[in-house]
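Each lists sequence, tokenised fold; shown next:
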Amino acid sequence: MLSVLTALPSLSDQAERLIELDVHRIAGLPADQLRNVAGSAGSLLVVHPELAPASALAPLMRVNDKPGFVVTDMSDVDEFAPISSVKLPDAPLYVIRDLDRGDAMANWSPDEALPAMADADRTPLTLTEGLHWLLQQPHALARGRCFMTIGSRRRKPGGSLDARTPAVWISNGTGRDGPANRNAPKVGWCWAGNRHTWLGFASASSRKSLGA
């Protein structure tokens, strides 16, 4: 069963939100290129990660009036690329449809969730797609109801997968996060074989490119 969240803003409103956050400048795109997008309701506007990487998007998140951050032991966050089954459109801008936070799979491991998504004809969100979602709908992240983005993994130099899988959740402000980050949205990671009761698995039904 899909997680019930409020409807996404219109694509024009999403474009204005990204422009307000200077995402178009990060990506090197003119503001009008975002403003001229067209698509159906219920779609999330995404800038390709080669233009707007996770390290640039994470600090733009704001949840509980706190800016987002990347955990200190994930300095290689931008090396987490789409897995082989996830094909990103070859375009600077694209949309994804029918977002689901994956609450029904809370306490599953990434290794268990990925084949279940494939069986349901759904595609896991990449990390930057998950961040775009939270830029538009911060309330999609709530304590006890956060999500993993297992469409992104990092490959080691030899070609094998790094055992870490990226996720976005709310910091408790402990350890290296620091008390100043309590209740802030954080980009972190979990082992691919581990389960966590507060993490679902974000997914979509499809991706579609938008004309440049």
